[in-house]
Design a protein that fits this description.
The protein is of the alpha/beta class. It has 2 domains: 3-162 and 329-361, Quinone Oxidoreductase, Chain A, domain 1; 170-306, Rossmann fold, CATH 3.40.50.720. It has 11 helices and 18 strands. The longest helix has 13 residues, at 191-203.
Amino acid sequence: MSQKVRAVIARGRNQPVTVETISVPDPGPGEAVVKVQACGVCHTDLHYREGGISDDFPFLLGHEAAGVVEAVGEGVDEVAPGDFVILNWRAVCGQCRACRRGRPWYCFDTHNATRKMTLEDGGTELTAALGIGAFAEKTLVHAGQCTKVDPSVSPAVAGLLGCGVMAGLGAALNTGGVTRGDSVAVIGCGGVGGAAVMGANLAGASRIVAVDIDDRKLETALGLGATHTVDSRATDPVEAIRELTGGFGADVVIDAVGRPEIYRQAFYARDLAGTVVLVGVPTPEMRLELPLLDVFGRGGALKSSWYGDCLPSRDFPMLVDLHLQGRLDLDAFVTETIGLDQVEEAFGKMHHGDVLRSVVVL
């Protein structure tokens, strides 16, 4: 029997979101219903509302979430009712060519629930953001999207590992391969970039340069582990990063913005044989032009980071444990806690750079 719950819906491009009643069906084979306890407000949700991802309105927004499994469908044995879980949007299949080569973080056939949540008014099917849809009292997901973690962690903190914070941490730790003694530059120090700074610090980088145009974000980056800051409104970031790294450039430069001009800065701000990591998400119309000779002559690696190249079953429990040990201050990312009816207001705060994360607590 389906359940009626409150949820945040985007009905049309650039229209303010609304809180409405939706129907959540019982879980089918391989699925789970999760009672959501907290869900972060991520920029991707705003992209959905603006029609920047697809036109499959209406959307059920929210994806950066944690909660408790309420029910599971046939064949589910990885989680059980009562388990505290973080939701992820890359539930690996275990069978595709990436998974079978031992690289499941690149899975090419990730899973979502097949049954659909619907609006109460006539049963209109909802498109769940990133296959999750967690700005809701309860949501239906594939069981593989549920990662069991230590239930003593705060849901408001745990949920952030479901998307933005994991993307930034993973960009440094997994994709960039930052290690002890490396020099690192992070361009764009919002939630994802701030997490990349924290990841570089956790890995033991000796010099971490935070670059942004917002003094508030630069100040926050220092608290997350940056050793130096660069205000790129007043200073050429490429020259500043080189100056701070002995004239050579950083070993790893992370672009957490996702614009062609920023990527060019990252490309030229790295040392010879250094690594560029793109974790900021570009839009479809963006184009990049670089001299091919420079690509060849500078060597190194140009990488894109999908979800921080994380494997949820490996990374989520580890990072939660580090947080509970006091070694990873995930609380630093929670600027405010809000209710479902404050999501539209939170979008405005995020757009103006007033928060790292607003977190809906249910």
